[in-house]
Amino acid sequence: MVNDRDRDGSGTEPSAHGLTYWVTNTHPSSKIDKWRRVTPNKFQALLAAASDSFPDLPPGESKDQRHVTILVPGNRPRSKDSADVYEEVCDRLFDGPDGLGLCILYDWPSVPGYGLNRERARRCGEDLAIILCQLFDWTLVRQGPCKAKLSVIAHGMGNYVLQKAMAIAWERKNQQPHANLFDELVMVAADVDNDLFDVGAPDKGDADSMINLSYRITVLYSVRDGILKDSAKLKRFGTQARLGHSGLANRPPVVNAGSNSPNVWDVDCSSFFPASVSEPDIHGAYFQTDAVLFLMRGILRGLDRQFLQPLGITTGNAWPPAGVPVPSAPVEQRTPQLVQTRDDGSRLLQSHQEEQRPLTESTSPTREIFLCHASEDKAAVAKPLSEALTKAGISNWYDAAELGWGDSITQKINEGLSKARYVIVVLSTNFLKKNWPQRELNAAISREAASGQVVVLPLVVGNAQDEQTIFDAYPLLRDKLYLKWNEGVESLIAILQARLKEA
Description:
By secondary structure, the protein is of the alpha/beta class. The chain has helices at residues 6-9, 40-52, 79-94, 114-141, 158-172, 204-213, 226-234, 243-246, 279-282, 290-300, 305-308, 378-391, 399-402, 409-419, 435-451, 464-473, 489-502, and strands at 2-3, 20-23, 36-38, 66-72, 101-107, 148-155, 182-188, 214-221, 254-256, 259-260, 264-268, 337-341, 347-351, 369-372, 396-397, 422-427, 456-460, 483-484. It has 17 helices and 18 strands.
């Protein structure tokens, strides 16, 4: 536990002397008197040792990789209250042989009153940013393969703590590209504006930081949440709907003029809670509901929405009772705002009415091919392959040609992956050392599994020993007919043209 309370971790005010660090081997962990305080260096050493003890899985089994997850609870005035939530989450998601790994509680002292609590959350977000910056530095200097994914779960007002913390961390780390800190960010019953991620929103700068530091953001909300239904009315500076009550204002969010962010999505969990759960109680019921926890487990494992949705994991059958209509999200959601530039160079926000797009739709044009490759293979393979495809009239997504100054890298790559008909994966020993292209491959495999159509086209680079190493890492690809780069690009283009004609 990382503790931000005064009175040696048991108080109701933020600590004026810095964060304190605590560990326990006692079960249940809700017994707060059984926690033992340690030094920051000792805590970091224990965390590193726990991470190193996780199984060293091959890249093809990344969905079974263990997690180091930060839990940021919502309104919990006492440390005992936060520990109770932590015990629930650990017991259901992280403990035991099928557990996801290690969970770290960030315990911050909330305060009664919406306005006061929001200011308290902002203050504690500054302290949480210290932890995020340390994790960021740790991931950069760490030697050897990382055995753990980093993720975060925030609940209620804890999402505002996290929002402010990520904005500060992103600024302190100079907004570095390819700077994903978290594999998964799960926003549960978030007490923040539902248009947070849209262009023109008051906290859009914070949202940009969250998007850039996260590979994927999942919002779990419920239109039955009575706490958040009232929360919007308490905002002194507006009545914007709460993200945890109404979900995203736009799906996917309009992050820039004419551009969406497909790595942010939401799930209405209302159908998971039985009618016996009252509206005020919905807000705290997520961590006590089996179906929601099963969904969280799938999200943290990195299962794609195109896999989760067809299996029915994103919908429940506990509610509504027969004959009861399902309520819709609040109507006060903002319409998308697009940015126009006037002749004098000033910027104008223009209201733009349009239909909600499907989760996988984006504004980038459809391409026949997405080129997935390690940067070390760019000059020798990816660039000449892209040039050959273009010469043959085959449209392709090649990062060097697609990414421009100021673009969101995550957003652009997600758009390219979702819109391409096929993904040519340049498989090499370089590829096996790179996290980013492996994530692209995993996303393409998930899309193929969900659609039942061929998406992944393997292209092997290297000798026979390299091939063996590659397919040992990705045994699922052994079943696929693959091509070899050393057989010549002309042969590859001819085979690909034949496949495109058949499709």
